[in-house]
Design goal:
about 400 residues; alpha/beta; Aspartate Aminotransferase, domain 1; Aspartate Aminotransferase, domain 2; 15 helices; about 20% strand
Length: about 400
């Protein structure tokens, strides 16, 4: 049955993804089932999206209640779930205002526009450049791929948009040199996900905040992947004792439903006035009702505490593997956003794990990325560790890549 669906899909769906030969039809918690009855433990979670697992009964109920009441009205009008979600995000963060959209790329587009518009409104028309990090990933629209520090993302779409400068991640000296009187913002991921699960150094991020304040430059934190509990805090910036001026969210905010959000302090948000930016489907009642339930569940069920505890356990188990397998160069990450860097291509490990009923991900060709639902159990982690312990020796064989 999988084969039939895959054949049909290849005839009608654009080939923008290299898809694995499996068709999923249902999920519950941390488990997915395909059309042939195959069962998989999910350590991908839609790439850090389904933080509360698949088919969460509470989110399903919240979604159903709202769908039975009001699906959509234009943002020319107000709706209660949108107001309540914005209030909750502001209560839990540094921000004063929220702009809702549909994805992480759209949230980053809004942040880029907001930063530039601030300086335009001040009459500083030459301040429109943005400094981003090497190996960063901010999206695939023209503005966000232009802000992305990975050549492979931009290749084939040149010329990219002008106005973005790049420096090495965690290098404050290079950043200081790159920030000029033409710079309006610095954009940083506190943890680079697509860049190989590389954590921002706490001292670096504090120095970035200090530099931006001294130079009058806006600091944007892209928390598309790190936000909503992934790192053991609701927002990753909380780990580092710094606050941005603007922050972007998406992915786990909707637990699988399409939503993005740009949060900003009042002094930054003032530049967005009626007509400067908009989104037809940004913050619709159904989606915001579900996202509000996500935040309530994370708070009410002590998900952050559980994520911290489980993340430490998972990392310790990965470090045990590192002691046994020379092919593992490094284990890194925070909370349940973990990476295992290999000395060889990691794609065969991903394939071998899937054959054994475990879904994992590989980024930067040799970094295995583990971003399971935050409700993953120690037993499910142990089962994956046992699988990796069996699979990794394959890479250690001479000539295997």
């Amino acid at each position: 049955m999988n084969t039939d669906y895959i054949k049909r899909a290849n005839q009608v769906i654009a080939s923008t993804y290299k898809r694995f030969p499996v068709v999923f039809e249902r999920g519950r918690g941390c488990t997915l089932w395909d059309t042939e009855g195959g069962e998989y433990t999910d350590f991908v979670a839609g790439i850090a999206v389904c933080n509360l697992g698949h088919a969460s009964p509470e989110i399903v109920r919240a979604l159903s209640r709202q769908a039975d009441t009001l699906f959509h009205v234009s943002n020319l009008f107000y709706s209660i779930p949108q107001i309540e979600l914005a209030e909750k995000l502001i209560e839990k963060s540094f921000a004063d205002k929220v702009f809702f959209c549909n994805s992480g790329a759209e949230a980053n587009e809004a942040a880029i526009k907001l930063a530039r518009k601030n300086f335009f409104d001040r009459g500083e028309y030459d301040r429109w450049r943005i400094v981003a990090m090497d190996q960063s990933f901010h999206g695939r629209t023209f503005a966000t791929l232009s802000a992305t520090g990975q050549k492979k993302v931009r290749e084939g779409f040149e010329p990219i948009l002008e106005g973005f400068d790049f420096v090495p991640f965690n290098d404050i000296e290079k950043l200081e040199a790159a920030v000029t009187d033409k710079t309006c913002a610095v954009i940083v991921e506190p943890v680079q996900g697509e860049g190989g699960v590389r954590c921002g150094d706490a001292n670096f991020l504090k120095q970035v905040r200090k530099l931006c304040t001294e130079k009058g430059v806006m600091l944007i934190f892209d928390e598309i992947q790190t936000g909503i509990g992934r790192t053991g805090k609701l927002f990753a910036y909380e780990h580092f004792g710094v606050e941005p001026d603007i922050m972007t969210l998406a992915k786990a905010l909707g637990n699988g439903l399409p939503i993005g959000a740009m949060l900003a302090k009042d002094e930054a948000a003032l530049a967005f006035t009626p007509g400067t930016h908009a989104s037809t489907f940004g913050g619709t009642p159904v989606i915001t009702a579900a996202a509000l339930e996500v935040l309530k569940l994370i708070e009410g069920e002590n998900i952050l505490e559980y994520c911290n505890r489980t993340g430490r356990y998972f990392k310790d188990r990965l470090l045990e593997l590192k002691e046994k397998h020379p092919v593992i160069e490094e284990v890194r990450g925070i909370g349940l956003m973990l990476g295992m860097k290999l000395s060889k291509n990691g794609a065969p490990v991903v394939d071998a794990c899937m054959e054994r009923g475990f879904l994992i991900n590989c980024t930067q060709e040799n970094v295995l990325r583990f971003v399971p639902p935050l409700v993953i159990s120690a037993e499910e982690i142990d089962n994956l560790i046992q699988c990796l312990d069996t699979v990794l020796p394959m890479l250690e064989k001479e000539g295997y890549c």
